[in-house]
Design goal:
Helix content: 25-40%
Strand content: 15-25%
CATH class of the largest domain: Alpha Beta
Structural class: alpha/beta
Number of domains: 2
Strand order of the largest sheet: 1-2-5-10-12-13-14-15
CATH architecture of the largest domain: Alpha-Beta Barrel
Oligomer: single chain
CATH superfamily of the largest domain: Glycosidases
CATH topology of the largest domain: TIM Barrel
Shape: globular
Bound molecules: 1-O-alpha-D-glucopyranosyl-D-fructose, calcium ion
């Protein structure tokens, strides 16, 4: 495996709208991010991924871009962005932006021009088809946020355009070389600014199955999941290779692909030494309990399922390259609420989950607030929901026959809003996030769970993450922690997740993934306890007696 500059680093995702507000308007902004660079540096972060800050109507919170070359005034200015890149660099931090190029906003000039002249140059930037009232749509795919992927083209009742996401997110036509060149130009413009690279949004969707085709309906709405067409669409790799060649490779940029359900043979092409991405997120754990009927039918992952999914993903990635490991992001519930048993809020359990994920082979990404153990938001009414995805899933649940209360409870567990409530910096009014009124309500637990409280406390979740990152950067262990193979240990011992890292230096990671104590036989004497999320360490006669949720990293 060719060594890359980013391999040994730890990354951190910022959701700018909810991270830190510098001017009191209740919306997080770039100056807020700049003010927290010292905090990130002290944590040990060396790569920061910013969710989109481009100009946008915010129909999908910035994942609908109306101008790729400017910063939305709510987030700041281009001068702020340049300053952020420069200030981060001084602290050894690379800034990575979100690259949303499967679609743009319906308010982007390209789409406006396409509406003005669908037969013209910009009409070919999108997927537009003739259609007459009462006629069947070109295909029966269901959009990610519900409803058909086709909507009438504004100003043209006899035409429809394709959008796999919201109708305000028209899909860009990657089959058109002129569009692809426009995108590459834009990517290079940003890389010229000194950006470290990109997180690449929803990228597998850029290859459509053409000619369009219906699939058997999988719900009462007569539509089918977009997954069906993605399984059949061939050749996304050709676009991806071209993009990498024309952009990222010239700058040795870091890229992380948001890729779901890639085909097995694609993994080396995607993340190998000559891969079109540097890395991709491992979503195996996220997909546990998934149900095609909708969020209401999804089940809660068990520790055994978590372990199995993680080990499978590690084995698959090893010969190909490196995946990126997460317990949560801005599209998911909080990891500690999702992967720990209902009602389990202890710091031991939170650090166990964080530690087990962080120590896997791959690039660790923390999501803002994860480092203090932020939890899901409580919901008492559907009116509190902001996220368009959640609003759709609520309707799906109602249609499936759930009562309003049941539907709310079901979607609240999965809502993207859970991760989008403002960052909890301190216990004062506005949680240190804003001096004004936050755009989205705070989690009421901010008075207890916040950075200021944890910074001063040696046994806090925050200090634990700091020690995890320090171990990854420790020259004595970095080679093993970064590159060592993951070898499961006692995989059949119930609710025990344990693994070796590497073969040369023996590192053993052990987590007792349950509230009850359990004994774990050790394969060799302990030379050093490198990390422990509890104060006690009880080992005798080669047996480790682990209290519930203990997590340790041992040198053997
Ligand atoms: O998400 C891509 C994606 O496939 C989503 O449907 C994801 O599965 C869903 O949000 C989970 O609830 C990306 C972004 O991360 C997301 O925030 C955007 O809404 C989406 O693309 C469209 O840009
Ligand atoms: Ca602001």
């Amino acid at each position: 495996m060719i060594r890359k500059w980013w391999h040994g680093k730890t990354a951190y995702q910022i959701y700018p709208k909810s991270f830190c507000d510098s001017n009191g308007d209740g919306i997080g902004d770039l100056r807020g991010v700049i003010s927290k660079l010292d905090y990130l540096q002290a944590l040990g972060i060396e790569i920061v991924w910013l969710s989109p800050v481009y100009r946008s109507p915010l129909a999908d919170q910035g994942y609908d871009i109306s101008d790729y070359y400017s910063i939305d005034p709510r987030f700041g200015t281009m001068a702020d962005m340049d300053e952020l890149i420069a200030e981060a660099k001084k602290r050894g931090i690379s800034i990575v932006m979100d690259l949303v190029i499967n679609h743009c906003s319906d308010e982007h000039a390209w789409f406006q021009k396409a509406c003005a002249d669908p037969e013209g140059e910009y009409g070919r930037y999108f997927y537009i088809r003739d259609w007459h009232e009462g006629e069947k749509l070109p295909c029966n795919w269901r959009g990610y946020f519900g409803g058909p992927v086709w909507s009438p083209l504004p100003g043209h009742p006899d035409k429809v355009y394709l959008h796999l996401f919201h109708r305000k997110q028209p899909d860009l036509n990657w089959e058109n070389p002129a569009l692809r060149q426009e995108l590459y130009k834009m990517i290079n413009w940003w890389l010229e600014k000194g950006l470290g690279g990109f997180r690449i949004d929803a990228i597998i969707n850029i290859k459509k199955l053409i000619p369009y085709r219906d699939f058997p309906a999988d719900r009462d709405d007569g539509l089918c999941s977009v997954q069906r067409m993605l399984e059949q669409a061939k050749g996304v790799g050709i676009f991806l290779d071209e993009m990498a060649r024309e952009t990222f490779r010239k700058y040795d940029a870091f890229t992380v692909g948001e890729v779901f359900n890639e085909k097995p043979e694609e993994l080396p092409q995607f993340i190998g030494d000559d891969g079109c991405f540097s890395t991709m997120f491992d979503f195996a754990e996220k997909l546990i309990g998934d149900d095609p009927r909708g969020w209401y039918a999804c089940t809660k992952p068990t520790p055994e399922e978590y372990k199995a999914a993680a080990f499978r993903a590690q084995a698959r990635a090893l010969p190909a390259g490196m995946l990126s490991n997460i317990i949560e992001n801005h599209d998911e519930p909080r990891g500690v609420s999702h992967f720990l048993p209902e009602g389990e809020h202890s710091e031991a359990a939170k650090t166990l989950l964080g530690g087990l994920n962080f120590m896997l082979r791959g690039l660790p990404f923390l999501y803002q607030g994860q480092e203090i153990g932020m939890e899901n938001l409580p919901f008492s009414s559907i009116d509190q929901v902001d996220d368009i995805n959640t609003l759709d899933e609520y309707q799906v649940a109602l249609q499936a026959g759930l009562s309003e209360a049941e539907a709310l409870a079901a979607v609240a567990r999965m809502s993207r809003d859970n991760a989008r409530s403002p960052m909890q910096w301190d216990g004062g009014a506005g949680a240190g996030f804003t001096s004004g009124t936050p755009w989205m309500r705070l989690n009421p637990n901010y008075t207890r769970i916040n950075v200021a409280e944890q910074q001063g406390r040696e046994d806090s979740v925050l200090r634990f993450y700091q020690r995890l990152i320090a171990l990854r950067r420790d020259p004595a262990w970095a080679e093993t922690v970064v590159y060592g193979e993951t070898i499961p240990y006692l995989p059949r011992q119930h609710n025990l997740m344990a693994y070796f890292r590497g073969t040369a230096q023996k590192l053993l990671v052990i987590g007792n993934f349950q509230p009850e104590a359990q004994d774990v036989p050790l394969p060799a004497p302990v030379r050093q306890v490198l990390l422990n999320n509890l104060a006690q360490f009880d080992c005798d006669g080669g047996i480790l007696h682990m209290p519930g949720y203990q997590f340790v990293v041992l040198a053997l």
